[in-house]
Amino acid sequence: MSDAAGQRRVIGSWALYDWANSAFATVVMAGLFPILFQDYWNASATPAVANLRLGWANGLASLVIVLIAPLAGAIADRAGRRKAALLGFAFPAATITALLALVPAQMGWLAALLFGLATIGFMAANLFYDALLVGIAPPERWHAVSGFGFGLGYLGGGLLYLGCIVAVMQPHWFGLASGVDAALAAFVVTGVWWALFALPLAYNVPEPPVQSPRSAAVSGGLRQLRSTLIHLRAYRPVWLFLLAYFLYIDGVGTTIRMAVAYGRSLGFEQNDLMLALLITQFVGFPAALFMGTIGQRIGARRGILMGLSLYILIAAWGAFIHSPWEFYVIAGLVGVAQGGVQALSRSFYAGLIPASRAAEFFGFYNVLGKSAALIGPPLFGALGVWLGDVRYSMLALIALFLAGALLLMRIDSEEDDPK
């Protein structure tokens, strides 16, 4: 096999993990879990209270990532075990996802616990998945490769979600008694999908070079982490980007996790909400590929700012929607913005950091991104409770997107598109 063919195989196997784990992000995190959490596991609670509980489940899962990500990344760097760490989180999380199907009605605390554990595994595995990017392609291709990964993720997650929607709407086609039974079965299918399509990465993507003997990886990781913290001030583009990312990716994540719950609170039907999420997925597929190309031409920072501007308009409109068709249009616009912001953020950051410390620095990347979710989803839910109308939740999104965009603009123009 030629070097070019070998690299294509590695890149394809790496990107296929986006196809794999996006099933959890789409079917579980954004799609069916928020609906079942409100209508099945918390049927006796008000919609606002159910949203608040879901927000706390997401926030506490993010807290765990905040605590473990930088050190775990540093240790994986030293031991050359980024791929092993990814799989060590992904496979248990896929199993826990399947176990959600066994949680009885009105057992909201157990559903929240399993969902939180699966979300921890999902986010931790992504830390190491992102870090592998710097070793599988040359820097000039990072924007395109990152966009390719996100594009496959949208396509794979969308296709599986489409199948799950069909099963929920027509459960008798699959020998199931009700839509609830179909939604619960979808958790099992998602866990199997996630584990199955992670296998190409396990077999074809190489580990990075070992920097320390594995027996010394923990102590070496601690020293490396301490050194990075001491010298982080010298990496001005890195910490400035991380501050901006901390803010705006919280808005992106909160939109993903709370949009369906928000629509349900406004009284939209389950079928309308599921269709809207499906629109987001299939629009996101070409949008992520397109924005990866745009990032190479106009610079990643400009591409991210375009996406954030669109998000601000989406959030403002979302506070006033009354009809399902508006939710559909907003879902399509989210698909355009979401894939580009996520893909370009990852590749932009990859160009700012030392490649030999990629997992460690992506630990900070994930800490800043996920620690924002400590306040984002809870605040989204809390505003609806405090102010007496779930529509006020949109204020949290607008503030986060605007603040992140303003900080991102402070990065010098020559740092806009690092190669």
Automatic annotation (TrEMBL):
Membrane topology, as annotated: Multi-pass membrane protein
Compartments reported by the entry: Endomembrane system
Pfam family, one: ATG22
GO cellular component, one term: membrane
Transmembrane segments: 16-36, 56-77, 84-103, 109-136, 148-170, 182-205, 238-261, 273-291, 303-321, 327-349, 361-386, 392-409
GO molecular function terms noted in the UniProt entry: transmembrane transporter activity
PROSITE patterns tied to this protein: MFS, SUGAR_TRANSPORT_1
Main location class: membrane
Listed name of the protein: Major facilitator superfamily (MFS) profile domain-containing protein
